[in-house]
Every structure is written in structure tokens, then in C-alpha cells.
Amino acid sequence: MEAVPVKKPRRHTIGEKMIKNRSIYMMLLPSMVLTAALSIYPIFWVARYMFYTYDKIHEPVFVGIDNFVRVMKDEYFWRTVKNTFVYAGGKLIFTLPISFFAAIILNHKFRGATLCRSILFLPTIMSSAVMALIWYLVLNVNNGAVNQILIGLGIISKPISWLGYENAMKTTIMVGIWGAIGNYMLYFLAGLQGVPEDIYESAALDGITPFQKLVHITIPMIAPAMKTVVMLAITSSFRDISSIMVLTEGGPAGSTDVMYLYLYRMYFPVSATVPATYQYGYGSAVAMVCSLMMGVITILYLRFTKKIDELY
Amino acid sequence: MKKKFVSMLLAATMLTGLLAGCGDTEEGGISAPGKEETAGQDTDDKENDAAGGEKEIVTVWCAGRADYEYMSAKLEEFNSTNDHIEIDYQVYTDNYRQAIELAFDTGEGPDVFSLGYGTELLAQNGQAVDVGPMLSEEIKELYGEELMNMGRNPLNYEQIITLPITSAACRLVYNKDIFERCGLEKAPETYAEVVEYAKIITEELSDEGIYGFAMNLKSASSALERSLTPVTALNEGTQVGLNPITGVYEWETYIPALNMFKQIYDDGSMYPGSDQLDIDPLRTEFASGKIGMYMSYSSAEPGVYTTQFPTEENWDFALLPAAETAGEYKSKNPGFEAWAWFISKDCKNLEAAMEVFEWLYSYDVQGGRYENGLSISIVPAIAEGFEPELIKQHPLMAVQEETDTYWPTVASGVAPEGEDWASMFAGYILGIPGYEDIDAICEDLNTRYTEALNRGLEDGTVSLSIYPDMDLKNPSAAKPVMVTEPIE
After folding, report:
1. How many distinct helices (H) and strands (E) make up chain B?
2. ipTM of this model?
3. Any idea which fold B35-165+338-399 has?
4. Which residue among A162, A204, A312, B57 has its CA within the 20 to 30 Å range from the CA of B419?
């Protein structure tokens, strides 16, 4: 009996595949172009100019690693780094637990749950600059609502300087927390709604307590989502400058100045009368150092969560 | 039904918030700049006209809309009567600096543009053409040699790249009603008197929430550039820390004036929350009669208290105080050239741009601005030719020949790392821990600013002009000497 040759399927070339999937590539194209122009190109731009002195007016001058030496010696920059950790740490410590427990409470069906969710989510959809401006007015020493209410209630006898040196950092953290809770609550809520109800039902039959339910079912079940949410919270807290810029502009005397605000001023220096000086070269070096720090924090966090995964 | 109503209400609220967010990107100055065309102008139509060869379009960009209505009327008149030029006048409300630099970078820049004091460097470094040889006799006569010298490029003194229009000098702004209530018959004339008067007002009226003095220290540079910098230039002759005669940093010259502000703060005479005030919130408090004195630019306040924050308070300007003896100053008050016009080197039709440039500087246009209280003219013929109502009410709004002058730029592009001078001085005034030792602060500033100056001189990013023959009583007459070697 004569063997019938098996016809091997012909492999498509890359070009053929691209033509075949052209509609997919066409749909991807706008975002690819935008990513290349707005994310990838700036990285190369920064990577180049961090070795130059460049003020936008004069031709760039190659200075080798001088900018990095300056960063290392720049005491004020390291002070802003310290402030960044205080701000981000303070914000994270409160935002994540509050968001998580708000999500757990609002995951239950009760009258007004939707209203509560919407109220908590409202600050998230507002521009953070507008939000901070409202807080700036509310916290005004002399005629801000907060001081007037507290004085009216007899809680304080004289106005508190909420954005003065002693309270400025605490206040900016508080405003940051207020603006972030809704967002992370929503992420946690999405994770919680993915937990199958029947697990809770069978656990209830075994007589599980609410605390055990939280520790042994809820947290392990939403752990993957939680990992991502915490990651997002860490990176955004470190990069958060808009509310600080509106509330204190980094003052008084640099007490709320964070590293990305310092970096911002290298690219957008503002002065009423003194000629503005752009520091694109030094700013690029600062940006690279900031990014490296963020990279290290991310890696440490990922390693930490990996260890946790291994343990459980 | 009720639930549906609540949902609709929430959706509406959220949409409002969202719109506020969108609005912020336009108004807040963080993203794209707002841009407005003047009334009655249509770019497409103008382009069509140009395509038909009827009129040459000259694009003019400027920032701020204080004189928007006035200029709209003038432009309409120009465009309807001029048979060969059409002005495309664009007013930017936000991020003008970034917008104009980006436009020049991408070849989309205007033919004629205005720049403030802070951005002169862009013009000085070749973006602006030398208009000197093209100026008409009429304009030369109107502005005179002294004003034309002010428009010279300090990096290339042979070039005239602009002409000054307005001047704004810092003044002490004080509430006459409050002074009267406290038995104070005149404005303070010395540092000691400012401290004393602030204390008297606070002691007498703080129960009513009225305090002697205020500063907008939320932005330290904004606060100190309208108070500490001019009062020190007037009394010590230094400009942003630099000695203009030697080019050496002398931040210690700021100590006497700093101690005046610090004493006011330590006495409790500073308006509570001054460390978190912006200038407009400060002005609202002043307008409501809560502040005895503050320092600011003479050009802005009359308009502010007439239209922005109308007030019933009886207020006026006083000259900045002298360090020790009333009326005795070492130098002159630096009135600064608020805005000036330049012609871009990329301009295709220089002749047409020059005609527009001269129209913008004309007696008619600038005189009208002055008459309407939109600027304080630095041009003697204009200042003498009109009697603006606001200047009648506040004579010290105008430039005072005896005490005010234009100060030439000494250094541009100095970029020290670390905390800037304004933030450190604000820390000292507010008594913040770590900022108590003013001598150490000044020494640190001298070291860091000198390092930055020398580093910039070495790599060519700093422009330093010193004025060895400067008479501190007449700084504008001094001729610059470019310095390229590091300063010891």
C-alpha cells in the first residue's frame, strides 16, 4: 500500500503573520507610538543628558559623571529624599489599612452601601490640585473652616497653623490619605468581589469567626490583587507631588519638599523676578537617582512578597 | 425611585468633580497653556487673506490678560486701518515661558514676542534680533538714549534687543485707617520704625484680628523678591546676593533687612499664618482690614484693590524703609522692567515685524495703557502726557526719579544645588530649627552660589556682567564688563 505523504502545514513568515494580524497591529499602533514618544524616548533623553550640563539656552556641555557627584554631595536633595520617605511612609501606613477595611465593610450589602462607596470614591475623581486647593482654603489659619469649627466647639482656644512648620508634613500626609483612600478601596473591593461566596458559606457552616474569615479566607484569596494594589500605592505615594505643590510648595523652609518636587523645579523653575535657570542636565541625573531608588524599593517589595508567597 | 434619584445626584456630583479636574489642567498651569485670540480675529480668515497676497500676517505673542480688552480695541483699529499688515495677537494665560520656548524649538514661534524680566536670557542668547539699526527717529526721540541703553543686550552691549515699557518698584503698602486708629501719623521710614509700628498695631488691635505686618511666605521667593531683595538693593547695593561692582557674592548684606522681618515675627506682629499665605490670600486679608503693612510691587496693587479685591479701606504706598536714617539710602530701588517686546530671529518679514514692534511701542498704544492704569510708563514723555486716575490717588505708584531706577542684570544662569537663598532666609525669619545661625547660612550661600557661578563660567552656561564704574546712586548708567574667568 502506497504511503500517502503527509502535508506539513507551511510556517508563516513574520511578514505574513503581521499582514494576517494587521488589524490587531493597527489597533495597537496608537498606544505603541504614544508609549515610544512619551515613555521610552524620555528615558533615553534623560540617560543622555545626565552626563551634560544643559540649561536649554546654551549648547549642552559634556561633564561626565559630575552631575552624579553633585547629587551625592547635594545635602538638600537627600533631605528631600528623607521627606519623601516620611510622606510616602505616613501615607501608606494609613491609606492601605483604611482602604482595605472600608472595602471589607462596603463589600457587604446594606442600605446606603453604594452611597458610601461613591462618597469615598469622590476625591479620587477630583483633580488632586483642585482637591488640595480646597484643603488649603479649609485649613487656612485665620478663616479656614477647620479652625473655626474647632474654636466654635471649644476644642481649641486659638487657631492651629495646619500648614506651618510643625504641622505641615502631617497635614500634607492627611490630605494625601484623604485623596487616596477611595482609589485603593475600589481596587480592594474589586478583589473582594472576586472571592466566591460559597467558600464563606461552607466556612460559616464550620462556625468560623469573622476574624478567622478575614485571616484565613479573605486575605489569602485576594493576596494577588493586594500585591498589585500595594505596589501601586507605594509607587504613587513616592511620586505624589501635586497636592504638596498646592498646599505648601515644599515649605516652610523645605520641610515638606519631596524629591520629585525638587526634580520638578529643575525643569520648571519659577521666579517672579530672578532669571529662571533650567537645570536639565543635573535634573536628569537627579531623575535617574530617583528612578533607581524607586527601582530598588520595587525590587525589595517584590522579593518580600515572593518570600511571603513561599511561606504560605 | 429614591435610590434612582440618589444615583443620578451622585453621577451629577461626580461629573462636576471630573469637570473640575479637566478644568484644572487648563487653569492650573501644569499642562497645556491656555491661549486666547483677541476679539474679532479669525486665524483662518487671516490665512486666507495672506494667501490672496493682500496682507502680511505678523504673529505677536504675550502673556497675561490684564490689558486684554484695551489691546483688543487697539488691534481691531490697527487691523482695519493698516492696508498691508494683519496682526495675529495671541494672549497666553498659563505656562507662557514653556509655550514660547517650545514654539521656538519647533519653529512655530511668533514674529514678535514679549518676555518678562525672568526670561530675558532666551532673548539675550540670540533669539531676539538687534532692532537698534532699524529704530525710527520717532521712536528714538520718544524713548531717548537712556531708555534705549536699558534695552541693550548685556551679553552683547552693541545690540539693542528691546525697549523698556513699564516699571514696577517695590513699596511699603499700608492701611491708613489702621495707622490712624493706632495714632501713627506717617508711614515708617526706617527698619526700626517698621518693627515698632508693626508692634504698636498688633498690641492695639490684635484682639480684633488685626496685625502689624504680613508676608506671603508660602512661596519664599515670591515673598522675598518683593520685600527683602529690593529693600537690600536700595540700602546695600547688592543684586540677588551679588555685588554688581565686583561680581562677588555677599549674602551677608541681607542680614539687616532680614533681622527687621525676623524681629517682627519674633514680636508676634507678623500676621498669623504668614508662612502659608500666597500673595492673593494676603491681599484679601489686607482688603478686609486685617493687615497693617506689607511690601509689594507698585504696579499691581492699585488694580488689585479696585477690581480683584475691591476694598473700602483707606490705603496707600510708602517708600521702602531706610536701614538706619530716614531718607538715606546707599543705592536706588530696583524698578524692574515688567514686560518688553522682542523680534524673533526666525521672523520671515523683518520689515513688517518692525512696523508692528514700533506700533506696540508707540505713544498712542503705550500712552493709552498708562492712561487706563494698565502699566506704569517708564517713558518720560508718556508719563508727563497723561494723568491716570490711579496715580492721582496713589502718587507713589509711579516711578520716583530720586529713589527708583532700572538695575542692569549682573548674572544669569547661576544654578546652585541645594536649598535656594529664599527658602533659607524664610527659615531664618520663621525661626525654624536648623536656620537660627544667619552667619552660617550666609556663608553657606556664598560658598554654594560662588561654586555654581564659577562652574557656569567654566562651562559657558553662566553670563556674568560686572559694572566696575557703577555709581550705586545711578546703576542704570553703568556699562557692563563681561566676565569669563572664575571669581575668587
Report:
1. 19, 16
2. 0.77
3. D-Maltodextrin-Binding Protein; domain 2 (3.40.190)
4. A162
